[in-house]
Automatic annotation (TrEMBL):
Gene3D superfamilies (alphabetical): 3.10.20.30
NCBIfam families: thiS (TIGR01683)
Domain of life: Bacteria
Record-linked SUPFAM superfamilies: MoaD/ThiS (SSF54285)
Name of protein: Sulfur carrier protein ThiS
Pfam families xref list: ThiS (PF02597)
Protein species of origin: Phocaeicola faecium
Length: 66
């Protein structure tokens, strides 16, 4: 299934939830936020939030520094 992640087409394999996507992209366990169609999805809902073909997600990683 093809989805958009930060405006880049990405092939989602091995599942169809935000949690599957996070594992596929090897995202860190903390410091990451994901929005589906410009709506933030709490980490507690990642396992139960299904993705569909052409869904648009934005992944934001926390950064330290100044």
């Amino acid at each position: 299934m093809k989805i958009l992640v930060n405006n880049k087409e990405t092939e989602l394999t091995g599942g169809n939830t935000i949690a599957h996507l996070a594992r596929q992209l090897e995202l860190p366990a903390q410091g990451v936020a994901i929005a589906l169609h410009n709506r933030m999805v709490p980490r507690t809902e990642w396992e139960n939030t299904p993705l569909k073909e052409n869904d648009s997600l934005v992944i934001i990683k926390a950064a330290c520094g100044g």
